[in-house]
Write a structure and sequence with these properties.
Layout: H1 6-15, H2 27-44, H3 52-67, H4 74-88, H5 93-113, H6 123-131, H7 139-152, H8 160-169, H9 176-187, H10 191-207, H11 211-222, H12 225-233, H13 235-238, H14 244-257, H15 271-277, H16 283-294, H17 305-316, H18 324-348, H19 353-372, H20 377-390, E1 398-399, E2 402-403, H21 404-407, H22 410-414, H23 417-426, H24 432-448, H25 451-464, H26 470-486, H27 491-509, H28 522-533, H29 541-566, H30 587-626, H31 629-633, H32 639-653, H33 657-677, H34 687-700, H35 716-726, H36 737-747, H37 754-769, H38 781-791, H39 797-815, H40 829-835, H41 838-848, H42 855-868, H43 885-897, H44 901-914, H45 917-933, H46 940-956, H47 961-980, H48 985-1000, H49 1008-1016, H50 1026-1033, H51 1045-1055, E3 1061-1063, E4 1068-1070, H52 1075-1087, H53 1093-1100, H54 1106-1116, H55 1121-1131, H56 1137-1152, H57 1162-1172, H58 1176-1183, E5 1186-1187, E6 1207-1208, H59 1219-1229
Antiparallel strand pairs: 1-2, 3-4, 5-6
Helix pairs in contact: 1-2, 1-3, 2-3, 3-5, 4-5, 4-6, 5-7, 7-9, 8-9, 8-10, 11-14, 14-15, 14-16, 16-17, 16-18, 17-19, 18-20, 19-20, 20-24, 23-24, 24-26, 25-26, 26-28, 27-28, 27-29, 28-29, 28-30, 29-30, 29-32, 30-33, 32-33, 33-35, 34-35, 34-36, 35-37, 37-39, 38-39, 42-44, 43-44, 44-46, ...
Amino acid sequence: MAHAEGIEGVRAIEKGFSDDWKKRCCSEHQIFIRDFALNRLISLYPAEISDTSYLHCLKRCLFLLGVCDVKIETAVQLKVTDIILAMIAHRNDFISHSGVECLEAFLEGHGKTCQSCGALDCTVLKEVQCKFNQNNIREKLRGRITLLLCKWSRSYEASEEFVERNYENLYNAGLRNSALHFLIADLTVSDGRRQVHLKFLKRMIKNCCDVRVLGRLLSMILKNNHLANWFSDHVKELLENDKIESKILVCESIISYSVGNTFTWDQLIEEKTLRLASIHGDDTVRLLALKTLCCHPRVSMPLSELDLELILHLITFSMTIESPSIRDPIVDCVKKLFSRMAHILQSHGYNSLSSFKHFLHRLHDVCVVSLDKSANFNRRFFVFHVLRELHSTVFDGKVKGVTIYELLELHQIISSAHFFNVMIRSLDDSYEKCQDMAAVLLLRSHKYGDDTRWNALIEETLQKYTVACSKTQHGIVYKMKVITEFCPQNVVDILNNIGNRARMMIDGLQPNLQSISNENPIHTVLNAMSAITSKCDLTDPSVQRAANDHVILPCFSVMEMVNPVLHSISPEGMVLDEDFVDDEDDMDKNVPDQVLTQKMQSQRLLVACWRTIKAVSEIFANIVTRSPDDLLRNDWSDHLPRIVGYFWNQLTECRHRGAFEMASECFKRVCQRMKRQFTEDGHQLNPDKWLDDILETLDSGKGIHRLVSTRRSAGLPHLVTAILAAFQPEGKFDKNESLGRTMRQLLRNEGKSTAIEVHCANVLKAIISNRIFKVQINDYIEDALRLSIDRLPSSSWNLRNAYSQLFSAITLRIFGPQNLNKLGTGMSAFEFFTTYQSLYSLFLEILNKFEPSNQQSVDRATAVSAFLCHIKPTKLSATDKFCLKSFIYPLHYIAFTSHSDHTRTFAVKAIRCLFQVDSLAELMTHEYLIMLDDIHGLPFGWITSLCQIIHYIVNEADATPKLETLLKTITVAFDDLLEKKELPDLIVYYILSVYLELKRGGRSVCLETVIRCLRSGKMSRCLASTEILTELLHDGVDDVADFPDQLAKSIIQRKHQESGEYSDGNTVQNKCSGDELILNKLCAQVKEGKDGWNDLEKILLKPSLVQISLQKLKELIEINEEKAVQVLAVFLQDEQRAVRQTASDIIIYSHLLPKINFVLFPRVTYTLIASKYPHIPSFVQERSSVQFDDSLMVMPTSLEQRVFEEVTQNTFSEPDIFEFEKESIESFQKLL
């Protein structure tokens, strides 16, 4: 068999000649792999270590040698281990993980061919142990390597210190997975190894710092049958402490993960422990308690009445959880509970029917009561989930011919009038998810309910659908959807009613469009039409006729009336009277009065027109996407061009952002339907033809005047992306031919006018920003970035703005959102330049051609420097395929020579982000020392950049002889510079920042020169450095008489901070200001027995003083319990979980239950104090106020005519206590 030579022959191994190679190899192949391929790979090290093909080849080669049992000479094996060690120590994650895989393949092959492998006299294995036990290997790889060494060496064991470190690594997210796998593998080795782990596991369970981490470890232990038996034998020893969290976690883990177990919770823990867990302050603990009760792996395990009682308490106290990561698992537990109940009833008959029925009816009542009163969103959302699961198909199974749902009499409670009314009222909920679930429950209720209720609902809805109030409109629209779905026989009559009302409003708008915001709110009628067309049956001929006459035709009339407002030059501007004369002599006198009189009406007109066109877009999208094919091709064939023309005009001529963005969402749906409906090439209604027309316009400029040039090309980018989305393939990696054609056209900018270029750049930005095309645009990212950088220096502001936006979109697309102040959050240089290889030479070319006097060069270099700021700090290495050393000198040249402070700043930041500080200090210290020696001759820009770079090095570099030399030179040069030159404030600021970093690092800094400059007045203007100077001088200077006044005052204040006092320049006062002083004064009066609670209460509840107020209340609760508790009750309703928990702890530990040894759930605390002080709910209610929008555009003549609605200040607040909460608390009070 002929073999390719060189690296191509090696790469052929990676692909594999045939599937037989994976099993066995002929002798010819063995020789080729061992004598040629492996030697070739060794010779290519280290030049090709960063090449992905090299890595794959090496792994493949070692794998095949192991499969074929081919023995390798000892010297060759040692060379291979050197290469593998270099790979594992590499900074790149992919290379280092590939190294571990190569080590595994190498050890497996060595173990098959070495007769003494695993024994003490195996030379290769000894060398491997020595090399791979070094400390320079990353922690997350050490566990995998240690396991490999333990597996292939009978004499090698992980040290106790290493085991302990892995238990600590469990709390590190980056090291957790590797630590878990090592610990489980080491536990399975022998009983002796398990004894080593026992004390660490016991300590971890006792502390129980992170329930989720410990739970994951226990689950992996218990899933292993051998380890599960060992754990069960030691469970009592592991649970010697009385910590509730530990007991619940271990109990839940044993029940959930032990294979084939018959454990129940009462065999493992006491009832008291489970009851206390149900009111625990940690949501995770309550979740574990619920899992313990509900989620037994044996679904036939019976449920006792005690189980059901505890489950009901747990659900009751979990209703207000705001975290989806806890709420969703709780809902899953409830779902599993219902399934388990159904299974028990089907398996064991009626034995548990009575208890189940009582529990489910009680749970239903609790949920409905929660919706019946003013519950917050968290409670409503949770309750709807529980009700949806309760009345789902889970109980549709039959027992003796009767459904379980009917046996439990659930159909009676869901068909009750009270439940119907609550669900109908829930359709007005401000959250659409709650409305959705209410509609689902109404559908279930409709199966058993009374039709007369629906008739009343239809009548009430038709009376209110023209109310302009946004909140009412929101509910009405949803009721229309529900009515259309549940009562299809009434749709035609409703459409006739709505259509007649629409015509009346249109007639009223003809003479006076401004009445659209008050007397004729046409958008309310259109919203109702939109709701109906989204659910009605458009295959019914009667519905088709009604939709044509009463929906489509009125929409055509309305859109022509409101388009001029949204297409005007300034849609947010003023609407002036027609008889207003623009007289220059009277302008100064008349315009302000005119503006004041028109302001409110113009804004209301704009809002009404926007809402109208939004509804029209939704209606047209519903009509096109839901109509049958024959209807669109025949009866409504004349409507389609007008509808498409409407969307086209909105997306090319409309200037109102809300209008064209809403139109674009609907246009996407239209495009998808048109693509399926009209597949003929060149058809006027085929989206591909529309795309060709747009691209022709953007190429030739024909018709360009019709495209809006404001607001980033307005809706044009949305138009293009909507069409392209219609042609998006189903496969993630399939090509979108339309997208490719569009990108190639947009990236060609030769001979295009400025206006066309701007539109092309804006469309490119929209396509690149759209996540739908995330995979398909990879081939065009480099060309787009090259184009944006090339065109950034344009003389046209419109072009510069468009390409700047494109540049930002590309940066965001590649790196994602980042905080550039935090290093190491981006992509590594190896990853970036391996993915986008042409950019390496482009960036180098731009940086090397930088000329400070050439503005185009400066702009391009600024863009590249800003882009490089997103790459992770990297070690400098000359062997890298993409060597970063090539960037270091050009970036320094830009940082020192650029006249633009903006450019210098980005260059310095790029230096800081690209290079690891130790590498930078090692390479550039000599150059920095040369500049410091001649610092008086350097321009101020050089000095600024040098100070920034040195500040970075001083802050982060490890101590080395070179660094110490640099630091000594720094202080001498900076002192000399401060004394002999008048420096700008910015340079002084950076010099002082370096001094401060030296001081914080524990190095001695002589500040005599700084003090002399301050006393002589040379630094009197440096107000920006006051904070730094205070930090530097407060502990070493006593006399501040000659210092600038602001600095002297700041130092005196700092000196008195430790004593809790500060100086205002004349006298020493308490270190407080404003409200804090008043709070301290009022607290002192109350402690002295004076009456000041009314004023104190107001100041305690100020949002800016939350933490201080809580500290004061901890003291005040001992003086006046009732007053302090009622203020703390307000904090128990705070939106911040930490504030609620702190207030709960103060009440419990300082007053109610000082001996309790766990954290109590804040809602439980609130219920306890509300039971003791019945006036507390009303007290809290008064302080949970509601905000109203009183701006001019609201004009609140009535609640029903509000354009914008009231907003609750605190959406979490829930002052009222439910009766079921009181009942639950009563069962716990004795226990507490």
